[in-house]
Design a protein that fits this description.
mainly alpha; 2 domains; 180 residues; 0% strand
Amino acid sequence: MRKFTAFFRLYYNYHKCNMGECDRILQEERFEATIAPVIGFAIHVLSALFILSFWYSLSIMIWLPIIIGNMVFVHKLDEQFYVERMRKFDEDMKRMWEQFERAHQRQQQQQQYNRQQQRHTSTSRLDTALKFLGLTRNATKDDVKKAYRKLAKKYHPDMGGNKNDFIKLKEHYDYVMGQL
């Protein structure tokens, strides 16, 4: 029964300025709201066959403007709501795009910060390794090898050195040679 009253509910809610309900009816029951006068027209025509009155048959012409007017009304109202829905959709898309851009900017800033931290860490690690080897930043590979051989004699466990210090020496040597 609810589908047959969509036509009347649409007009009632439009008259009461309840546009949210009108939009819902148009989205869910557009066909029923458009076709209700046509059904009324068909019932009227069928009843006219039994009554066979000239004036009753002539009253069928009243239905034509009702049917056409309703179709125009529903179309215009649906078009108005369509424009409103598209405007809302555009606003939502614009808002989502702005959120995406902000998130992308934050991600880029975080990546840039991480790269700076990594550069700072690698520089300080190189400085630490060079300091452990007793060298400065302008040392060559030959200087690093000489310093390594000298310290290897000092820290090697077979020569009376500490095993952990020798391992540290080897790590620093490998890192510095990889950087030069």
